[in-house]
Amino acid sequence: MRKILLVTIVSLLANLALTAQECSTTWPYLYPQFTQGVVHLTGGSKLQHPLNVHVQKGRLHYVENGLVKEAMNRDIFFIQIGEERYNVVNGDVMKVVATTEGGFVAAHYYADMDKLRETGGAYGSSSTTQATRLLTSIDMVGANTNHMEMWQNRHSGEYISLICKYYLVTGKDVYPASKKGVETFLPESRLGEFKAFLKENKIKWKDPQSLIKVVDFLK
């Protein structure tokens, strides 16, 4: 029991630290710096580069010869950044936060664009003008940019809040991690079984270790 509690606390602290990174319009990335990792391609080959995940595009970026480049998601089998694994789910690079034999729970960290649009004007500019400038900035920063210039300017942009949304992945099937999300995509013949499952298991829809039970049900 103590071991399970410790693992849960460590997982929560890791996610908290990740979402607390200094993500901005001039550094729209999940990690505070590009981190050495391995990209496993669908053809079986591997690429080793400093890697990062763009929080607005949902793409994998890497540094090669001093330039930030963008990997094609369709060519990616899976990604290893440090001790963390990422898969391409619904066209976006997502972190694998819990696994089981039948699939995994994916965490999609992405920029809170609504909050960015609500940013107040600076230096006398209107909110609309300021928001347009910020959105343009986040769209422009990233691929085909000089890595050192981006690194030097990483603190000059506006802060970006991150949203974390969970998905349940079983084979080729992807379900939003919510009661309604699962029911929407579940065959009608299994709705009664799912209702009984929820009655027996008190699922915490924001807890990956609890969500993995739903993945086992869906497989």
Explain how this protein is built.
- This protein is of the alpha+beta class and 219 residues long.
- Helices cover 32% and strands 32% of the residues.
- The protein contains seven helices and eleven strands.
- It has helices spanning 2-19, 113-117, 127-140, 147-152, 179-185, 191-200, 208-218; strands at 35-41, 46-54, 59-64, 67-70, 76-81, 84-89, 92-100, 103-111, 145-146, 162-170, 173-176.
- The chain has an eleven-stranded antiparallel sheet.
- The two termini are 27 Å apart.
- Mean pLDDT is 84; it is low at 1-20 and 120-128.
Spatial extent as radius of gyration: 19 Å
Sequence stretches where pLDDT stays below 50 over 5 or more residues:
1-20, 120-128
Strand order of the largest sheet: 9-4-3-2-1-5-6-7-8-10-11
- The separation of the N and C termini measures 27 Å
| Beta strand count | 11
Counted by DSSP, the helix tally is 7
Q: Please bin the fraction of helical residues.
A: 25-40%
Sheet/helix structural class: alpha+beta
- Please state the average pLDDT score: 84
Cα shape = globular
What percent strand? 25-35%
Sheet with most strands: 11 strands, antiparallel
